[in-house]
Amino acid sequence: MVSRLLCMVVAGAVCSVAGAVCSVAGAGEKPNVVLIVCDDLNDYITGMGGHPQAKTPNIEKLAQSGVAFRRAYSNSPICAPSRSSFLTGIYPHTSKNLFWDKWYENPVLKHSKTVMEHFRDNGYHVAGSGKLMHHHLGGVWSEFKHKADYGPFVFNGSQRVAHPSVPLPFGSIGSVDGSFAPLSDVPYAPDKSQKKGWIYGTWGKTVPMRYVDEQSRDPTPDERNAKWAAARIKAFAEEKGGKPFFLAVGFIRPHTPLHVPKRFFDMFPLENVKLPVIRENDADDCHYADVFDEQQKGLRYFRLLKESYPTMEAGIKAFARAYLASVAAVDECVGEVVEAVDNSRLSDNTVIVLTSDHGWNMGEKDYLFKNSLWEESARVPLVIRAPGIAAAGGVAEHPVALIDIYPTLVDLCGLQGDTRKGDQGAQLDGHSLRPLLEDPKSETWGGPDAALTMIFAGKDTAKNPAKQHWSVRTRRWRYIRYNNGAEELYDHDNDEYEWTNLATAPQHAAVKQELKAKLLKMTGRQ
Question: What whole-number distance in Å separates Cα of residue 415 and Cα of residue 411?
Answer without folding.
Answer: 7
